[in-house]
Amino acid sequence: MTIGVLLVDDEDLVRAGLRAILDSEPDLAVLGEAADGAEVPGLVARLRPDVVLMDVRMPSVDGIRATAHLVSTMERPPKIIVVTTFENDDYVYDALRAGADGFLLKRARPEEFAGAVRTVVAGESLLFPSAIRKLAARSGGRGRRDGLAAAGLTERESEVLRLMAAGLSNVEIAGELFLGVQTIKTHVGNLLGKLGARDRTQAVIRAYESGFIPLG
């Protein structure tokens, strides 16, 4: 299966570089480009990409607003990876809270971009635990502070959520807990449902903002 990608960045050079990287991979294909977030809804509707690589800072409609629009208006929005210059950019955290599936730095290696696209399509999270923790701390806990008690997570689901926040994949969590990968997938699906989270990234953001996972 070929994974279709939409590139969104206001710098021509950045888009050209990403296109060269992704189009060189046999299972990836760049379907289109946009220089501003305002172009994204129409292109997504027409091209139906699996993944959008989204610049977070753009002059007219930024990546946060574009991400929020896709997530709130589409029944099955594409996976969204925010691409940023600085990992401590508050805009990144706002984009993650808006529904982005992860982020990458523009200085990432070519293989990291290709790997990131494959990771989010496979349903895994693209999180960097220390960076997310710092961003959550910088945000001052702007989200819900109700804890996760009302969600009714089981002890096992809570364990899985903590390991997800540590950046572990399903395979790694299975090894850590001595369980089968399919069992972990079931736990992940159950906890996402209880939290009302779109994906693993949103579940981790909720865990930090609720105080379930300490920011210290």
From TrEMBL:
Domain Response regulatory: 4-121
GO biological process: phosphorelay signal transduction system; regulation of DNA-templated transcription
One Gene Ontology term of the molecular function aspect: DNA binding
Key words, A-Z: DNA-binding, Phosphoprotein, Transcription, Transcription regulation
One Pfam family here: Response_reg
Domain HTH luxR-type: start-end pairs: 146-211
Modified residues (4-aspartylphosphate): D55
Record-linked InterPro entries: CheY-like_superfamily, NreC/VraR/RcsB-like_REC, Sig_transdc_resp-reg_C-effctor, Sig_transdc_resp-reg_receiver, Tscrpt_reg_LuxR_C, WalR-like
Keyword Transcription: yes
Name of the protein in question: DNA-binding response regulator
UniProt source species: Amycolatopsis antarctica
